[in-house]
Design a protein that fits this description.
Blueprint lengths: L2 H11 L12 E7 L4 E5 L12 H11 L5 E8 L9 H11 L4 E5 L5 E5 H4 L11
Parallel strand pairs: 3-4
Antiparallel strand pairs: 1-2, 1-3, 4-5
Helix pairs in contact: 2-3
This protein binds tetrahydrodeoxyuridine (THU).
Length: 131
């Protein structure tokens, strides 16, 4: 699947989000190596710190359904500009999707920017420390 198509799926996944308090919709589309897509959206609660980001809802759903190998994740938001993943999501994406993961950001003009997850979280903590 090409990056723009995955990006557009992230845009449409925003409709699944529940940003009750911030009103800031974020959508994610996670692509497995087998070509399956998991969509995610941010979900907020009245206890703000219990909010979960769009990226993590997509990844956790994929893990629960038994998928373990991922190619890329696209992220879209209500902002005009690209919406990069927060620090917590960078750690989760690195740990659960692997160092080769492409992170595709799409802005309101449908422009695309692509990073490797390792560019977004350099000098990272990881499973190697726990062996
Ligand atoms: N948010 C995401 O869903 N992903 C990110 O990587 C950045 C932030 C959400 C969390 C919260 O619901 C809203 O954006 C405002 O912070």
């Amino acid at each position: 699947m090409d990056d723009l198509t995955l990006g557009r799926l992230a845009v449409s996944a925003k409709s699944k989000s529940l940003p009750t308090y911030s009103k800031f919709h974020v959508g994610a589309a996670l692509l497995t190596k087998n070509g399956k897509i998991y969509e995610g959206g941010n979900i907020e609660t009245s206890s703000f710190s219990l909010t979960i980001c769009a990226e993590r809802t997509a990844v956790f759903q994929a893990i629960l359904e038994g998928d373990r190998e991922f190619t890329s994740i696209a992220i879209a938001s209500d902002a005009e500009d690209f919406c990069p993943p927060c620090g917590a999501c960078r750690q989760v994406l690195l740990d659960l999707c692997g160092k080769d993961l492409d992170v595709i950001l799409i802005n309101a003009k449908e422009e695309i920017i692509k990073y490797k997850i390792t560019e977004l979280i350099p000098h990272s903590f990881g499973e190697d420390f726990l062996k």
